[in-house]
Amino acid sequence: MKVFNKLLRSIGSSVLAFCSSVGRIVIFALNAILHLVRPPFYGREVLSQLMQIGFYSLPVVGLTALFTGAALALQIYSGGVRFSAESVVPSIVAIGMVRELGPVLGGLMVAGRVSSSIAAELGTMRVTEQLDALVTLSTDPMKYLVAPRVLAATIAMPILVAVGDTIGILGGYLVGTGRLGFNSNNYLQNTVDFMELEDITSGLAKAAVFGFIIALMGCYHGYNSGRGAQGVGKATINAVVSASVMILAANYVLTEAFF
Amino acid sequence: MITVQNLHKKFAANTVLNGIDMQIEKGQSMAIIGGSGTGKSVLLKCILGLETHDSGKIFINGEESSKLDKNKFLSNFGMLFQNAALFDSLSVWKNVAFRLTQGPNKIPEKQAKDIAIEKLRRVGLTPDVGDKFPAELSGGMQKRVGLARAIAANPEIIFFDEPTTGLDPIMSGVINELIREIVVEMGATAMTITHDMSSVRAIADKVIMLHNGRVQWSGDIKELEKSQNPYLNQFLKGNAEGPIEAVR
Ligand SMILES: Nc1ncnc2c1ncn2[C@@H]1O[C@H](COP(=O)(O)OP(=O)(O)OP(=O)(O)O)[C@@H](O)[C@H]1O
Ligand SMILES: [Mg+2]
Fold it and tell me: How far apart are CA B240 and CA B248, in angstroms?
């Protein structure tokens, strides 16, 4: 009985803790959005974050997409060949990349790179009182640090994913023509013919949502970092884990919505 | 004018401020002394609203802090943090000129840099320091950059958290003089936390001593030496024996 009580209590308290942190994250997100639409705006910060978050994530997103597209072509071929449907490889690689794998894998990779770095940066600023110092200099950290990062990531992710999609399709093409004996022209023709505009827009819309999640989680955990180096370390872990899980959950919800 | 009434603050079970009463007039320079960990830094943060207090009232220029227009108050305010709290992604001069280059009243970058260099000179740093990054400076240099940043926009109210800690005696003298100048020439209201008694004598009009979460002694600088308060005397003489327990 005692054990049972203890168990119930610990489940109860973790559910409560979960609900309250969901509430706090929602308030934080609304706050960030509010600061995005209210002046003053920090355009220069947004530009420098676009560089940090967008441009410098290109290699990791590109490489991820390249290998994913290549592996995808092989897998679909080995499935398709069982009912003599090898010819679907180009279009399924393209659709799979654009609708699903490009945004999701790109999102996860960028979460690892960007959520962690934002959380570590803001967490260090919290711990060393730089956030407090900003306030005493009449600058709202939500406006100066959080809003530009959230905006930049939301803009950068669709662009990154568009580039990633293209590279992923290229990866499939290289394997298709090099290993699987596809004719180069046919492959490209097949890729383009079956693609619909909605495939592309739904993927890019996902990417924008993932970008928002990535920056939001980095900022939220960094901003509320605990004390000391340990606090920053924890904030970084929480940022990456929560961003990744939220990306996967949001992906399912959005896929249902676009279905 | 800043008035604090019956201020309480605790962190979990650790009661830090246990009924603080104090007042500082406009244009006055107050020194806050007291043992390490007695809540001096926390007191300043509570006044600023960086920490929320549990109970008690804070008035700034007669207005209660919760009803105060924070932006207006902060626009005339400067603070030196105990650990300087410089922005390590910005160069030194951009740190110093931060307030000048942000917000609605920002001035051109060139002009802001000139002001920053001038403020750096006043805290005894050469212009070439301006282009370095905070991580490249020694602790004492960082402290002085923090001081320059606090005074860059000529604030009317300034809080200094241990401005001379980590400085050599000559540089301490320079900084003490600077703080005194800021109060006398610019008519600023200053609150300075310090452990350095020569600093207290050089800059303060009024002194308060914190102990056990309360104001143990407060008075004019002239009364400091004459006081018979055993806590204050132990503190001034630096005795290990006395009413303040030194755990060893
Ligand atoms: N954010 C915080 N969370 C928990 N405890 C805190 C926090 N900030 C301060 N404290 C505690 O409050 C007490 C007072 O700290 P404070 O920094 O005000 O001391 P101080 O008087 O400035 O000391 P020093 O002269 O060494 O700077 C300490 O016991 C400290 O552990
Ligand atoms: Mg302190």
Answer: 10
B106 vs A73: CA distance, rounded Å = 56
Least Cα separation, residue B140 to chain A (angstroms)? 16
Tell me the HSE value of B171 on the side-chain side, using a 13 A CA sphere.
15
Quick one: average pLDDT of B51-75? 88
Phi, psi for residue B198 in degrees, rounded to 5: -70, -30
Count of beta carbons in the 10 Å neighbourhood of residue A152:
23
Measuring CA to CA, how many Å separate A74 from each of A69, A99, A175, A182? 9, 18, 7, 12
Interchain contact, A130 vs B86, CB within 8 Å = yes
Q: Which residues of A touch B77 (CB under 8 A)?
A: 136
Residues of chain A short of pLDDT 70, as ranges, are: none
At residue B235, the pLDDT reads: 85
Question: What number is the ipTM of this complex?
Answer: 0.91
Instruction: Looking at the structure, tell me whether residues B193 and B141 fall in a common domain.
Output: no
- Domain of residue B32, CATH code: 3.40.50.300
Q: What's the length of chain A? A: 259
Residues B22-32, mean pLDDT to the nearest whole number: 93
Report chain B's mean pLDDT, rounded to a whole number.
90
B163 DSSP assignment? T
Q: What is the pTM of this model?
A: 0.90
Domain ranges, residue B44: 1-76+157-174+187-248
SS3 call for B57:
strand
In the predicted model, is pLDDT for residue B247 greater than 70? no
Compute the distance between CA of residue A1 and CA of residue A241 in angstroms, rounded to an integer: 35
Cβ–Cβ below 8 Å for B103 and A133: no
- Ligand having the closest approach to the CA of A126: 1
Arithmetic mean of pLDDT, B78-88: 93
pLDDT at A194: 87
One domain, residues B96 and B4: no
